[in-house]
Amino acid sequence: MIPNGMPVMIWCQGTGTAVEYQLYFEKQLSDWKKPDPPGQMSKVNFFIQTMSLQTAGQYRCLYRIGEHWSEPSDPLELVVTGMYDTPTLRIHPGPEVIPGENVTFYCDLETATKTFFLLKEGPSNHPQHRSGKTPAEFLMGPVTTAHRGTYICFGSYSNCVWSFPSEPVTLLVTGAAGVANPAPTEQPSSSDTLALATPVFWQEKTDHESRSRYIDQLDSWKPHMLTTKRGFHKGKQDAEGVSTLKNEVGKGVRPGRERA
Protein backbone atom coordinates (compact mmCIF):
# COMPACT_ATOMS: atom_id res chain seq x y z
CA MET A 1 0.00 0.00 0.00
CA ILE A 2 1.47 3.34 -1.06
CA PRO A 3 -0.08 6.73 -0.16
CA ASN A 4 -1.22 8.89 -3.07
CA GLY A 5 1.55 11.22 -4.27
CA MET A 6 4.48 9.23 -2.84
CA PRO A 7 7.40 8.18 -5.07
CA VAL A 8 8.07 4.44 -5.27
CA MET A 9 11.08 2.28 -6.14
CA ILE A 10 10.39 -1.18 -7.58
CA TRP A 11 13.28 -3.63 -7.32
CA CYS A 12 13.66 -6.65 -9.59
CA GLN A 13 16.15 -9.32 -8.55
CA GLY A 14 17.31 -12.07 -10.87
CA THR A 15 20.84 -13.51 -11.11
CA GLY A 16 24.30 -12.02 -11.43
CA THR A 17 24.53 -13.20 -15.05
CA ALA A 18 21.41 -11.32 -16.22
CA VAL A 19 22.07 -8.91 -19.10
CA GLU A 20 18.64 -7.21 -19.25
CA TYR A 21 15.63 -6.61 -17.00
CA GLN A 22 12.12 -5.63 -18.07
CA LEU A 23 9.20 -4.25 -16.04
CA TYR A 24 5.61 -4.80 -17.16
CA PHE A 25 2.60 -2.83 -15.93
CA GLU A 26 -0.83 -4.35 -16.61
CA LYS A 27 0.77 -6.73 -19.18
CA GLN A 28 2.40 -3.86 -21.13
CA LEU A 29 6.14 -3.16 -21.24
CA SER A 30 6.70 -0.20 -18.93
CA ASP A 31 10.49 0.07 -18.58
CA TRP A 32 13.70 -1.87 -19.11
CA LYS A 33 17.32 -1.74 -17.93
CA LYS A 34 20.61 -3.31 -18.96
CA PRO A 35 23.15 -3.76 -16.15
CA ASP A 36 26.40 -1.87 -16.60
CA PRO A 37 28.73 -3.72 -16.80
CA PRO A 38 26.62 -6.52 -18.35
CA GLY A 39 26.10 -9.71 -16.38
CA GLN A 40 27.35 -8.34 -13.05
CA MET A 41 24.16 -7.11 -11.34
CA SER A 42 21.66 -9.46 -9.70
CA LYS A 43 19.02 -6.75 -9.20
CA VAL A 44 17.93 -3.41 -10.65
CA ASN A 45 15.40 -0.76 -9.64
CA PHE A 46 12.62 0.99 -11.53
CA PHE A 47 11.44 4.38 -10.29
CA ILE A 48 7.84 5.61 -10.19
CA GLN A 49 7.91 9.34 -9.51
CA THR A 50 4.37 9.67 -8.13
CA MET A 51 1.97 7.01 -6.90
CA SER A 52 -1.49 7.73 -8.35
CA LEU A 53 -4.57 6.19 -9.94
CA GLN A 54 -2.56 5.83 -13.16
CA THR A 55 0.33 3.92 -11.54
CA ALA A 56 -1.73 1.68 -9.23
CA GLY A 57 -2.08 -1.85 -10.54
CA GLN A 58 -0.22 -5.05 -11.31
CA TYR A 59 3.52 -5.19 -12.05
CA ARG A 60 5.76 -8.06 -13.13
CA CYS A 61 9.44 -8.23 -13.99
CA LEU A 62 11.66 -10.67 -15.85
CA TYR A 63 15.30 -10.91 -16.90
CA ARG A 64 17.40 -12.24 -19.77
CA ILE A 65 20.51 -14.43 -19.74
CA GLY A 66 22.01 -14.56 -23.23
CA GLU A 67 19.05 -15.16 -25.55
CA HIS A 68 16.86 -16.82 -22.92
CA TRP A 69 14.21 -14.99 -20.89
CA SER A 70 13.13 -16.06 -17.43
CA GLU A 71 9.49 -16.54 -16.61
CA PRO A 72 7.92 -13.36 -15.22
CA SER A 73 7.81 -12.84 -11.49
CA ASP A 74 4.53 -13.30 -9.67
CA PRO A 75 2.42 -10.15 -9.91
CA LEU A 76 3.19 -7.31 -7.52
CA GLU A 77 0.06 -5.25 -6.90
CA LEU A 78 0.68 -1.65 -5.92
CA VAL A 79 -2.33 -0.28 -4.04
CA VAL A 80 -2.73 3.50 -3.85
CA THR A 81 -4.30 4.72 -0.60
CA GLY A 82 -5.55 8.14 0.43
CA MET A 83 -8.27 8.48 -2.21
CA TYR A 84 -11.57 10.31 -1.84
CA ASP A 85 -12.73 9.75 1.75
CA THR A 86 -11.95 8.44 5.26
CA PRO A 87 -13.91 5.55 6.83
CA THR A 88 -14.89 5.20 10.47
CA LEU A 89 -14.08 2.09 12.50
CA ARG A 90 -15.74 0.96 15.74
CA ILE A 91 -15.88 -2.21 17.85
CA HIS A 92 -18.95 -3.88 19.40
CA PRO A 93 -19.50 -4.57 22.28
CA GLY A 94 -16.50 -2.36 23.00
CA PRO A 95 -12.73 -2.06 22.80
CA GLU A 96 -12.18 -4.03 26.04
CA VAL A 97 -13.39 -7.65 26.23
CA ILE A 98 -12.50 -10.88 28.02
CA PRO A 99 -11.21 -14.09 26.41
CA GLY A 100 -13.99 -16.14 24.83
CA GLU A 101 -16.19 -13.21 23.82
CA ASN A 102 -17.18 -12.44 20.24
CA VAL A 103 -16.55 -8.99 18.81
CA THR A 104 -17.56 -7.24 15.61
CA PHE A 105 -15.63 -4.50 13.83
CA TYR A 106 -17.81 -2.09 11.83
CA CYS A 107 -16.21 -0.11 9.00
CA ASP A 108 -18.33 2.59 7.34
CA LEU A 109 -17.68 5.07 4.55
CA GLU A 110 -19.96 7.79 3.18
CA THR A 111 -18.57 7.53 -0.34
CA ALA A 112 -20.36 4.83 -2.34
CA THR A 113 -18.46 1.56 -1.95
CA LYS A 114 -19.30 -1.84 -0.53
CA THR A 115 -15.80 -3.25 -0.38
CA PHE A 116 -13.74 -2.86 2.79
CA PHE A 117 -10.51 -4.18 4.27
CA LEU A 118 -9.59 -4.57 7.95
CA LEU A 119 -5.90 -4.72 8.89
CA LYS A 120 -4.28 -5.55 12.21
CA GLU A 121 -0.99 -3.96 13.19
CA GLY A 122 1.98 -6.19 12.42
CA PRO A 123 3.85 -7.43 9.32
CA SER A 124 2.39 -10.96 9.26
CA ASN A 125 -1.32 -10.15 9.33
CA HIS A 126 -3.34 -10.61 6.15
CA PRO A 127 -6.05 -8.03 5.37
CA GLN A 128 -9.59 -9.26 6.00
CA HIS A 129 -11.90 -8.46 3.08
CA ARG A 130 -15.67 -7.85 3.19
CA SER A 131 -18.02 -6.69 0.45
CA GLY A 132 -21.74 -6.38 -0.26
CA LYS A 133 -22.87 -4.58 2.88
CA THR A 134 -22.50 -1.12 4.41
CA PRO A 135 -21.26 -0.77 7.07
CA ALA A 136 -18.97 -3.76 6.65
CA GLU A 137 -19.02 -6.23 9.54
CA PHE A 138 -15.86 -8.11 10.50
CA LEU A 139 -16.76 -10.86 12.98
CA MET A 140 -14.05 -12.10 15.32
CA GLY A 141 -14.14 -14.67 18.08
CA PRO A 142 -14.11 -16.33 20.40
CA VAL A 143 -11.23 -13.92 21.04
CA THR A 144 -7.96 -14.75 22.75
CA THR A 145 -4.98 -12.59 23.62
CA ALA A 146 -3.75 -13.26 20.07
CA HIS A 147 -6.52 -10.94 18.82
CA ARG A 148 -5.53 -7.94 20.90
CA GLY A 149 -3.85 -5.13 19.04
CA THR A 150 -4.48 -2.08 16.89
CA TYR A 151 -6.68 -2.18 13.79
CA ILE A 152 -7.49 0.13 10.87
CA CYS A 153 -9.86 -0.23 7.93
CA PHE A 154 -10.05 1.02 4.34
CA GLY A 155 -12.82 1.39 1.80
CA SER A 156 -11.90 0.09 -1.65
CA TYR A 157 -13.07 1.52 -4.98
CA SER A 158 -11.20 -1.13 -6.98
CA ASN A 159 -8.58 -3.78 -6.21
CA CYS A 160 -5.79 -1.21 -6.25
CA VAL A 161 -7.55 2.04 -5.22
CA TRP A 162 -8.26 2.42 -1.50
CA SER A 163 -9.53 5.24 0.69
CA PHE A 164 -7.64 7.02 3.43
CA PRO A 165 -7.14 4.77 6.47
CA SER A 166 -9.58 5.04 9.36
CA GLU A 167 -8.44 6.24 12.74
CA PRO A 168 -6.83 3.26 14.50
CA VAL A 169 -8.76 1.44 17.23
CA THR A 170 -7.24 -0.86 19.84
CA LEU A 171 -8.80 -4.12 20.99
CA LEU A 172 -7.92 -5.06 24.57
CA VAL A 173 -8.41 -8.66 25.70
CA THR A 174 -8.25 -8.72 29.50
CA GLY A 175 -9.14 -11.12 32.27
CA ALA A 176 -8.18 -14.80 32.28
CA ALA A 177 -4.68 -15.36 30.92
CA GLY A 178 -4.38 -16.77 27.43
CA VAL A 179 -1.55 -17.75 25.16
CA ALA A 180 -1.04 -15.68 22.04
CA ASN A 181 -0.62 -17.77 18.92
CA PRO A 182 1.38 -15.83 16.35
CA ALA A 183 0.20 -16.05 12.76
CA PRO A 184 2.19 -18.53 10.64
CA THR A 185 4.68 -17.07 8.24
CA GLU A 186 5.72 -18.43 4.85
CA GLN A 187 9.40 -19.28 4.47
CA PRO A 188 10.89 -18.56 1.05
CA SER A 189 13.66 -20.71 -0.41
CA SER A 190 16.37 -19.61 -2.86
CA SER A 191 15.41 -16.69 -5.10
CA ASP A 192 15.08 -16.67 -8.86
CA THR A 193 13.13 -13.51 -9.68
CA LEU A 194 12.34 -10.98 -6.98
CA ALA A 195 10.08 -7.95 -7.28
CA LEU A 196 9.52 -5.54 -4.42
CA ALA A 197 8.35 -1.95 -4.05
CA THR A 198 9.96 0.61 -1.78
CA PRO A 199 8.65 4.10 -0.99
CA VAL A 200 11.28 6.76 -1.57
CA PHE A 201 11.66 9.58 0.94
CA TRP A 202 12.61 12.97 -0.54
CA GLN A 203 12.48 15.11 2.62
CA GLU A 204 14.52 13.08 5.06
CA LYS A 205 16.66 16.09 6.11
CA THR A 206 14.28 19.03 5.72
CA ASP A 207 11.17 17.33 7.10
CA HIS A 208 12.44 14.71 9.55
CA GLU A 209 9.29 14.72 11.68
CA SER A 210 6.86 13.89 8.86
CA ARG A 211 9.27 11.27 7.47
CA SER A 212 9.44 9.58 10.87
CA ARG A 213 5.66 9.51 11.17
CA TYR A 214 5.35 7.94 7.72
CA ILE A 215 7.95 5.26 8.42
CA ASP A 216 6.26 4.34 11.71
CA GLN A 217 2.87 4.05 10.00
CA LEU A 218 4.13 2.01 7.05
CA ASP A 219 6.14 -0.32 9.28
CA SER A 220 2.94 -1.14 11.14
CA TRP A 221 0.86 -1.95 8.07
CA LYS A 222 3.45 -3.79 6.01
CA PRO A 223 1.87 -6.50 3.75
CA HIS A 224 2.92 -10.13 3.94
CA MET A 225 5.32 -12.04 1.66
CA LEU A 226 4.15 -14.35 -1.13
CA THR A 227 6.22 -17.13 -2.73
CA THR A 228 5.77 -19.48 -5.71
CA LYS A 229 8.14 -21.63 -7.76
CA ARG A 230 9.50 -20.26 -11.02
CA GLY A 231 11.95 -21.46 -13.68
CA PHE A 232 12.91 -20.70 -17.28
CA HIS A 233 10.80 -20.93 -20.42
CA LYS A 234 13.51 -22.84 -22.31
CA GLY A 235 15.23 -26.08 -21.39
CA LYS A 236 18.86 -24.91 -21.36
CA GLN A 237 18.32 -23.04 -18.12
CA ASP A 238 16.45 -25.12 -15.53
CA ALA A 239 17.28 -23.08 -12.45
CA GLU A 240 14.24 -23.57 -10.23
CA GLY A 241 13.69 -20.76 -7.76
CA VAL A 242 11.13 -18.63 -6.03
CA SER A 243 9.41 -15.44 -7.14
CA THR A 244 8.95 -13.32 -4.07
CA LEU A 245 6.81 -10.22 -3.70
CA LYS A 246 7.41 -7.98 -0.75
CA ASN A 247 6.56 -4.43 0.28
CA GLU A 248 9.18 -2.76 2.45
CA VAL A 249 9.94 0.64 3.84
CA GLY A 250 12.75 2.56 2.10
CA LYS A 251 15.74 4.06 3.84
CA GLY A 252 16.07 7.38 2.06
CA VAL A 253 17.73 6.03 -1.08
CA ARG A 254 17.37 8.50 -3.91
CA PRO A 255 16.53 7.08 -7.34
CA GLY A 256 19.13 7.19 -10.05
CA ARG A 257 16.77 7.13 -13.00
CA GLU A 258 13.14 7.96 -13.59
CA ARG A 259 10.74 5.54 -15.18
CA ALA A 260 10.40 5.90 -18.93
TrEMBL record:
UniProt cross-references to InterPro entries, sorted A to Z: Ig-like_dom_sf, Ig-like_fold, Ig-like_Receptors_ImmuneReg, Ig_sub, Immunoglobulin_dom
Membrane disposition: Single-pass type I membrane protein
Ranges for region Disordered: 231-260
GO cellular component: plasma membrane
Keywords carried by this UniProt record: Cell membrane, Disulfide bond, Glycoprotein, Immunoglobulin domain, Membrane, Receptor, Repeat, Signal, Transmembrane, Transmembrane helix
Keyword Disulfide bond belongs to the record: yes
Domain Immunoglobulin: 92-174
A GO BP annotation: immune response-regulating signaling pathway
Pfam families: ig, Ig_2
Subcellular location(s) per record: Cell membrane
Residue ranges, compositional bias (Basic and acidic residues): 248-260
This protein's record includes keyword Nucleotide-binding: no
Location, primary (coarse class): membrane
PANTHER family: MHC CLASS I NK CELL RECEPTOR (PTHR11738), NATURAL CYTOTOXICITY TRIGGERING RECEPTOR 1 (PTHR11738:SF14)
UniProt record similarity statement: Belongs to the natural cytotoxicity receptor (NCR) family.
Name of the featured protein: Natural cytotoxicity triggering receptor 1
Source organism of the structure: Molossus molossus (Pallas' mastiff bat)
